């Protein structure tokens, strides 16, 4: 095959164009820190990147969900803690009132304090967080207990929040299980303090039952809080792994790219130098 001057020139220009293209790719990688700037640069890397990014976004959403569950748990536990202290105070008053030396006026004074504690417990049963009643399940806009201490007329449906793929936690506590019978017990105790029939020792036993209900609810809540901590640890690990995997797929190795750019620059200079020798003046150059 006959090789002409035009063939040499065309080949050199095509090679120089390819060299420029490679240097442009390396410069873009160094300026962006990414292996590709558009999907057509490497469809495989682009497709994998979409999958890894979706996985990372999913983990971040679950982390936001766990924060919401924490908000429910923390506020519920705080309310139950206050209820425990209030009921313990009621029990102390019941033990005092059971003393045979107490007179009717003294018991009536105790009855007044118990009445105030009852109102306090009603307020706790109606605890609101962000305008949501936390002891009424999904009926967050309905007040659980009214002024006459009657409540939970609506069926309880727990607030379920997905905290990881396939894992859902109940964020709420059934207030009817915690406070069920509590206000009736306190009404009976107040009536006995005011001289109506009944033994105050009976009230002590009833108050103990109510305390056990609250303690059991807090124990169940504590178990769920421990499980949530385990889920959060797992999500943190998944976030680190997903971030690292996405980085390995998309981010460049700066030292490698810089080395390749320097090598390509050397190749390009050599191509320019050799091309200058190959393209010799022609007769047309002298006729211009």
Concise overview:
By secondary structure, the protein is mainly alpha-helical. The chain is 70% helix and 5% strand.
Written overview of the protein:
The chain is mainly alpha-helical. The protein has a domain at about 50-245: f41 fragment of flagellin, N-terminal domain, CATH 1.20.1330. It has eight helices and four strands, in the order H-H-H-E-E-E-E-H-H-H-H-H. The chain has helices at about 5-30, 45-95, 105-125, 175-180, 180-195, 200-250, 255-280, 285, and strands at about 130, 130-135, 160-165, 165-170. The strands form two sheets. It has a two-stranded antiparallel sheet with strand order 1-2. A two-stranded antiparallel sheet has the order 3-4. Helix 1 packs antiparallel against helix 7 (about 255-280), helix 2 (about 45-95) runs antiparallel to helix 6 (about 200-250) and helix 5 packs antiparallel against helix 6 (about 200-250). The radius of gyration is 38 Å and the shape is rod-shaped.
């Amino acid at each position: 095959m006959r090789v002409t001057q035009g063939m040499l020139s065309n080949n050199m220009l095509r090679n120089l164009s390819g060299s420029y293209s490679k240097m442009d790719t390396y410069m873009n990688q160094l300026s962006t820190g990414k292996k590709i700037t558009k999907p057509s640069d490497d469809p495989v890397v682009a497709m994998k990147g979409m999958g890894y990014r979706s996985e990372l976004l999913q983990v971040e959403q679950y982390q936001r969900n766990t924060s919401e569950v924490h908000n429910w748990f923390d506020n519920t536990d705080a309310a139950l803690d206050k209820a425990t202290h209030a009921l313990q105070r009621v029990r102390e008053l019941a033990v005092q009132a059971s003393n045979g030396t107490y007179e009717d006026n003294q018991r009536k004074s105790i009855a007044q304090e118990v009445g105030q504690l009852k109102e306090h417990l009603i307020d706790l049963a109606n605890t609101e967080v962000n305008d949501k009643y936390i002891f009424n399940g999904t009926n967050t806009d309905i007040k659980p207990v009214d002024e006459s201490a009657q409540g939970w007329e609506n069926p309880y449906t727990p607030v379920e929040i997905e905290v990881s793929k396939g894992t859902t936690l109940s964020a709420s506590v059934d207030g009817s299980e915690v406070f069920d019978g509590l206000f009736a017990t306190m009404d009976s105790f107040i009536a006995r303090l005011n001289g109506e029939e009944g033994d105050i020792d009976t009230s002590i036993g009833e108050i103990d039952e109510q305390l056990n209900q609250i303690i059991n609810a807090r124990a169940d809540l504590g178990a769920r809080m421990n499980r949530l901590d385990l889920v959060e640890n797992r999500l943190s690990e998944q976030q680190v792994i997903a971030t690292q995997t996405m980085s390995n797929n998309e981010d460049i190795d700066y030292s490698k790219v810089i080395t390749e750019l320097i090598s390509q620059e050397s190749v390009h200079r050599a191509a320019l130098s050799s091309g200058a020798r190959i393209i010799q003046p022609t007769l047309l150059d002298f006729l211009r």
